[in-house]
Specification:
It contains 15 helices and 5 strands. It is of the alpha/beta class. A 5-stranded mixed beta sheet has the order 3-2-1-4-5, with helices on both faces. α2 runs antiparallel to α3 and α13 packs across α14.
């Protein structure tokens, strides 16, 4: 193919380019342009565009455009950066205005709105006289530069600033997790049972499984999760209610079966009003209740400290892997599915490698510890 734009350098131009390449004078783009012109010079190397592009790690189109500019615009225009023909657009907002907009965005939304939208924020910024006019796209870029995330609210377990009871209960649980022998962690979770009103359409190669939006409520149930972190064992049961009697019956079954030979069973649970020693006396005769209580050693997680309960992590895993995106229509189906999940998990013996220790707590959560005044 005959080249339309031919690079032919004078001796002075060639020497200038060689000086740039040799001493790396200027930006990396300038050095690369100098190399391209030297290789494309018909009185010199006279390489073709493909060979130049491969050697200098650029596109063939870049070489072609550079030859074209050299012929049409001249040596200086090609070698140096093209000067801007129009002045840059002035910034719409100065630092003070950006700060006011970010402060407004961080504040509560106007009455009648749950959250700020970009268009609502743009209207409010103009109403307050921060700017005369502004588009929602300008606000989006401004907020992005300020590190504002799209999420407006993040729900979090916020502990108290200083709480001796919190730290005492936290260290008690962490001390249990530091022991070489296993304990049993338990937690519970309510579940809404729902049934289909229309038969779902099975998936095909053309479309996924189709489920109707409409559903029928079928009552509620409560899932009880018991897990041994070190051995990787978990047991999941479901009951229609969540009362002291239900909890006591679940505990009694474990003490009678899996822990029949254990003299003392260490239980980590949250401080719910159903997780008490008195629950055994509401479910059994005093003699049996006393025997059960003597065999259980309770360790309660602090209020706003449910993250310390490993059973809560297991409930979260089970919800994602077993219940999420499904409609469970009966407690029998719930028991069957959760039992199958527990059996599959137990076969893998997936244990928990708990890393957070008392020393970590005293270092990272020092704001929760009371300051001793001498």
């Amino acid at each position: 193919m005959v080249k339309k734009y031919i690079v032919r350098l004078s001796d002075q131009e060639r020497q200038h380019l060689e000086e740039i390449v040799k001493r790396l004078k200027g930006s990396s783009q300038k050095v690369r342009r100098a190399n391209i012109l030297l290789k494309a010079n018909v009185d010199g190397a006279n390489w073709n565009d493909a060979k130049i592009a491969e050697a200098l790690s650029c596109r063939t189109r870049t070489v072609e455009n550079l030859r074209k500019r050299f012929v049409l615009e001249g040596f200086d225009s090609v070698l140096n950066r093209k000067k801007r023909e129009t002045p840059p657009i002035a910034k719409k907002l100065d630092g003070k205005q950006e700060a006011e907009i970010i402060a407004l965005r961080l504040g509560p939304a106007p009455s009648g709105f749950a959250n700020w939208s970009l268009r609502l924020l743009a209207e409010r910024v103009v109403e307050l006289g921060i700017v005369e006019s502004i588009s929602h796209e300008t606000l989006r870029r401004t907020l992005k530069r300020g590190g504002m995330t799209p999420r407006k609210i993040q729900y979090w377990v916020i502990p108290p600033h200083v709480d001796a009871e919190f730290t005492a209960a936290m260290e008690d649980v962490l001390d249990v997790y530091a022991q070489p022998y296993d304990e049993i962690c338990m937690d519970e979770q309510p579940v809404q049972l729902t049934r289909e009103t229309r038969t779902p359409i099975a998936a095909t190669k053309e479309h996924p499984r189709r489920v109707d939006y409409e559903y029928e409520r079928a009552g509620t149930a409560c899932i009880f999760m018991f897990t041994e972190p070190l051995s990787g064992w978990r047991n999941v049961t479901a009951r229609p209610h969540r009362t002291k009697v239900d909890w006591a019956l679940e505990m009694e079954e474990l003490l009678r079966t899996r822990y029949a030979k254990a003299r003392k069973v260490i239980v980590v649970c949250d401080n719910l009003n159903t997780h008490t020693r008195g629950a055994f006396y509401e479910a059994f005769e005093p003699e049996k209740a006393r025997e059960l209580v003597k065999r259980v050693e309770f360790h309660y997680t602090p209020k706003h400290g449910s993250w310390l309960n490993i059973a809560e992590n297991e409930l979260s895993s089970m919800t994602r892997q077993c219940l999420s995106g499904r409609r469970i229509e009966s407690i029998e189906m719930l028991r069957k599915e959760t039992a199958a999940w527990a059996s599959a998990s137990n076969k893998k013996q997936r244990g928990v490698d708990w890393q957070f220790t008392i020393d970590n707590a005293r270092n990272k959560l020092k704001s929760l510890y009371p300051k001793i005044k001498m």
